[in-house]
Amino acid sequence: MFRRIFGPGPEHEQAADQAEAALTAAPTTAGETATVRRIVARLEEMPPERARLVASAAYTLARAAQSDLEISADETAVMERELQAHGALDEPTAVLVTEMAKLQARTVGGTENYVVTREFTSIATEEQRINMLRACFAVGAASGTISAEESAAVNQIASELMLDTDVVTAIRSEFRERLSSVQEVRRLAGQG
């Protein structure tokens, strides 16, 4: 199941094996096991194109969260909420997909970041790409501040999403007060 979600190739095998081991080795009650099985069945029932869209979206969000080398509980909650937006996934499925994407972002990363975001770009509509950029900013802002590392990662994601500069600027301005650089200037000026 995890190989199908993570995709083929040796770079994905370790993460898929880790996800499978974590899922099967975790102590669970019968109810939890049944829940996980229902979620896995739902993911496997998705049309392949939809599964690719969901997986690449989740990984791109995890990439934004991992940019400062830590994925907080607040960032995780925003990722889960974004994956549920517009009825995309139900809550249990969004939680599982988020955990899988976080594992991938922590273990694979690097050049995979570019490849997966470009995959998302190739199959997503413009509206979905715009929503993804806004969601990445929201993930970065989950702690109240978008760090320089998070800002740089979201800027790179924006470039890979191939959005107009005006669109990127408009979305970035929605999060202006959360940027660490803006907060620092205001603090130094005695305004914050």
Radius of gyration, CA atoms, in whole angstroms: 17 Å
What structural class do you assign from the helix and strand content?
mainly alpha
Number of domains: 1
State the oligomer: single chain
Helix content class = over 70%
* Strand/helix succession: HHHHHHHHHHH
**How many beta-strand runs?**
0
CATH topology: TerB-like
Put simply, the count of helices is 11
Question: What's the level 1 CATH class?
Answer: Mainly Alpha
Quote the distance from N terminus to C terminus: 49 Å
Overall 3D shape: globular
Mean pLDDT equals: 84
Residue windows where pLDDT falls under 50 for at least 5 positions: none
Strand content bin:
under 5%
Can you offer a commentary on this structure?
- The chain has 192 residues and is an all-alpha fold.
- The chain has a single domain, classed as TerB-like, CATH 1.10.3680.
- The chain contains eleven helices and no strands.
Brief overview:
This protein is mostly helical.
List the helices and strands and how they pair.
Elements: H1 2-6, H2 10-25, H3 30-45, H4 48-66, H5 73-84, H6 91-107, H7 111-123, H8 126-140, H9 148-160, H10 165-174, H11 180-188
Helix pairs in contact: 2-6, 4-5, 4-6, 4-7, 4-8, 4-9, 5-6, 5-8, 8-9, 8-10
Quick tags:
192 residues, mainly alpha, TerB-like, 11 helices, 76% helix, globular
